[in-house]
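Re: that backbone. Tokens:
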């Protein structure tokens, strides 16, 4: 009688464990295009690396902005210097939230007038917009996201946009 009980227990366990094992094989890190983080990428960036990664302040329609974020040094530099800008937008794609660049950003006033336009040089853009309410459109490849952007009188408006 014991072998039968063991066989039943094993078949039940296989019914529960097999889907879990298959799910592990379908994990995102096994998909093409996923690259593991290297040991050097895990190391904190030095002050010299941060300063060497500085990006230029750009301007569109009288609005200053910073864009970039490719690499840890550039992200750290933007984090330090971007806090002076009242708008921060971050762009990613997919379930894993992989960073994307070359995002077309258009910001319009409530009456539809274009206030700002740029194409990002990385996944981050910091924009020096005056406080108020705006309509923003972000386009990455054929995907478009529209959202309301409220810029506070003090502090920062932070918005993350994820594309499929």
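Recovered sequence:
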């Amino acid at each position: 009688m014991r072998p039968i009980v063991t066989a039943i227990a094993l078949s039940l366990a296989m019914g529960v464990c097999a889907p879990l094992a298959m799910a592990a094989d379908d994990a995102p890190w096994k998909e093409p295009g996923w690259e593991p983080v290297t040991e050097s990428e895990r190391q904190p960036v030095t002050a010299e690396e941060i300063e060497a990664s500085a990006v230029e302040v750009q301007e569109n329609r009288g609005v200053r902005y910073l864009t970039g974020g490719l690499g840890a040094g550039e992200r750290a530099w933007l984090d330090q210097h971007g806090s002076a800008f009242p708008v921060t937008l971050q762009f990613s794609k997919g379930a894993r939230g992989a960073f994307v660049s070359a995002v077309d950003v258009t910001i319009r006033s409530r009456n539809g007038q274009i206030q700002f336009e740029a194409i990002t040089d990385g996944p981050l853009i910091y924009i020096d917009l005056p406080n108020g309410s705006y309509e923003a459109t972000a386009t990455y490849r054929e995907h478009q996201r529209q959202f309301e952007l409220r810029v506070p009188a003090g502090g920062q408006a932070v918005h993350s946009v994820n594309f499929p």
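Confidence is low (pLDDT under 50) at residues 4-26. The chain has one domain: 46-163.
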